[in-house]
Amino acid sequence: MRENFVIAPKYSHLAETLKGVLHNFSEKGNYVAQGERNIIKMVQLKGTSFNIKAFKQPNLFQALVYQFIRKSKAKRSFEYASKLIGLGVKTPFPVAYLEVFSFGLRQSFYISEHINYDFDFRELIHNPQFQKRTEILRQFTQFTFKLHENGINFLDHSPGNTLIVEEENDKYDFFLIDLNRMRFECLDFEQRMHNFRRLWPSKTMVKIMAHEYAQLYGKSFEETYSLMLKHSRAFQKKINSKKLRRRK
Q1: Which domain of life is it from (predicted)?
Q2: Fewest CB atoms within 10 Å of the CB: 22, 69, 71, 84?
Q3: 228 vs 72: CA distance, rounded Å
């Protein structure tokens, strides 16, 4: 069995302590999320809170791919977070990751700083009367435009993956999470509009975001709105069709 543990210099003094937590993951920390694929726990060490994401154990084929061909989700999360911060994009600070190999990847963990956020993007979808909703959507669109201008194609740009912190004077900070599916590339206008599809916005939300993005990009509102709505509706139709097939 072989391990690969990488930690940010900022937290090198906690290396052995964090490795101990990971080696006893089932007994340490408090659950934040416990899904079918991944588990997230929070631990506190010396006054600092950390989130630990344990990725689902891959099957044998995937395990070999992750050892010899493709980077693990934990490693990608750490590297992508570091790159985002370097580009001035907010995400919980990447602390460390651990990979355990034995005839392929057997276990992997990603550790980041815990942030106290006020709400996530889902709140804007489920509550049309959410306070200052229009202004938040405008600033979120500016944030997404910044991603695109920096060549960041966040493939999981979905409602639960943007945490929002309210600052003073009606300003909002946006933090990306769940980072392992991302490409760094130049995006054309079609790709930019396609990137909004997973957010599941209503027509009203699309209008607000399209108006803001059109001004930032220098396109007409009509063209921006039409393309953003087209991709959003196509995605929603696809997901609803899958749900219908499962029920049948």
Answers
A1: Bacteria
A2: 69
A3: 32
If asked whether residues 87 and 168 sit together in one domain, one would say: no
Of the residues 84, 113, 142, the one at which a domain ends: 113
165 and 125 belong to one structural domain: yes
Quick one: tokens of 85? Answer: 């911060």
Domain at 24, CATH number: 3.30.200
Tell me how crowded residue 201 is: count the other CB atoms within 10 A of its CB: 23
Number of domain units in the chain:
2
Last residue of some domain: 113, 140, 158?
Answer: 113
Q: Give the Cα separation of 31 and 183 in Å (integer).
A: 30
Per-residue pLDDT at 248: 66
Is the domain of 168 the same as that of 103? no
Which string of DSSP letters, residue by residue, matches 114-182?
Answer: ----SEETHHHHH-TT-TTHHHHHHHHHHHHHHHHHTTEEETT--GGGEEEEE-STT-EEEEE---SSE
Pairwise CA distance, residues 239 & 136, whole Å: 26
Enter the pTM of the model.
0.93
String of DSSP letters for 56-124: PPP-HHHHHHHHHTS--HHHHHHHHHHHHHHTT---PPEEEEEEEESSSEEEEEEEEE----SEETHHH
Please state, rounded to an integer, the average pLDDT across all residues of the chain: 95
Does residue 59 sit in the same domain as residue 149?
A: no
Same domain for 154 and 223, yes or no, is yes
pLDDT tens-place string over residues 141-150: 999 999 999 9
